[in-house]
Design brief:
It contains nine helices and seven strands, in the order ααβαβαααββαβαβαβ. With 295 residues, it is α/β, with parallel strands linked by helices.
């Protein structure tokens, strides 16, 4: 979806060029340093810039109207488009950092509207404490391969897989007290999809490696995994999600973003969707007619 902000930036550039042209023209004319022919060329250039400014203003107004019409259409058709898209699906949600109530509300609303349920939620403490994790892991004979800073990415990856797949989750059972700030739902049942939200600022060192592993583990778990954020997120994470193999939605606070999230969890082509420059694949994944009971 075209972002009007970037059109306005172009418009501002034209306007600045127009002002510079006028100032330069006036300054040179006052000093008598150009002849009549060159002054005529300068005046023609200024006129050209004025025309460009007028055209850009008209285009900006048209685009604003079109965007408003598109938003109105999406808001009005949202209930029909989203209904039963995820009927019977169970979705896991993981926050990196404390739960953002507005994002949680947007995600929960989308899942409810689509007929899905939140299977479990985990909000992770960051930065992690590697020494505390190692102390916990040392008590488990089968966890020796995850002890030490060199294994933080592998540890994160395995935790990502356990979070999505459920079943026996020895690492989560061992590390929940050290890793989890807030939780709901059990570990056993497999998830049909996973949503990731990073509310904490970008991390460094061992925590960064751990999170890279976690994201890649979720991406490789065999179910749709989507990283989401608000359009005004103070800590954008779309690039990190994409590099780890997650699909992304950068406007989950909007109806369009909630639709994109639901379509991705329902099996739409993976990609980066939303309203910001990070949305490489457009505003929405391709629409498909949902299959409902009784046709």
């Amino acid at each position: 979806m075209f972002d009007l902000r970037y059109h306005v930036a172009s418009l501002a550039a034209v306007f600045i060029a127009l002002i510079i042209g006028i100032l330069v023209g006036v300054g040179i004319s006052d000093r008598g340093l150009v002849d009549k022919a060159n002054r005529g060329l300068l005046e023609q250039r200024v006129q050209d810039l004025e025309t460009q400014l007028q055209n850009a203003s008209q285009q900006s107004a048209t685009l604003k109207t079109e965007q408003q019409a598109a938003r109105t259409l999406i808001n009005e058709t949202y209930p029909v488009l989203i209904r039963n898209r995820l009927r019977g699906k169970n979705i896991a949600v993981v926050f990196i950092g404390s739960v953002d109530r507005s994002v949680r509300s947007a995600v929960s609303g989308a899942l409810t509207d689509a007929g899905a349920q939140q299977l479990r939620l985990r909000a992770l403490k960051v930065p992690i404490d590697p020494a505390q994790l190692d102390a916990k892991l040392a008590s488990q004979p089968d966890a020796d391969g995850y002890v030490g800073n060199a294994h933080l990415e592998s540890l994160g990856k395995e935790l990502g897989q356990e979070l999505a797949k459920g079943g026996d989750t020895p690492l989560w059972n061992t590390l929940t007290d050290a890793l989890v700030e807030e939780r709901s739902g059990g570990n056993k049942q497999a998830a049909d999809g996973v949503i990731v939200v990073r509310t904490a600022q970008p991390q460094r060192g061992g925590t960064s490696r751990f999170l890279q592993g976690l994201y890649s583990g979720l991406a490789a778990a065999g179910v749709p995994a989507v990283g989401v954020e608000r359009t005004d997120s103070p800590h954008p994470a779309i690039t990190i999600y994409r590099e780890a193999g997650l699909s992304t939605v950068d406007d989950v606070d909007k109806a369009t973003g909630r639709l994109a999230l639901v379509f991705l969890l329902a099996g739409a082509p993976p990609g980066q969707y939303g309203q910001k420059p990070s949305a490489r694949d457009g505003a929405l994944p391709p629409l498909e007619t949902p299959t409902t009971a009784g046709g």
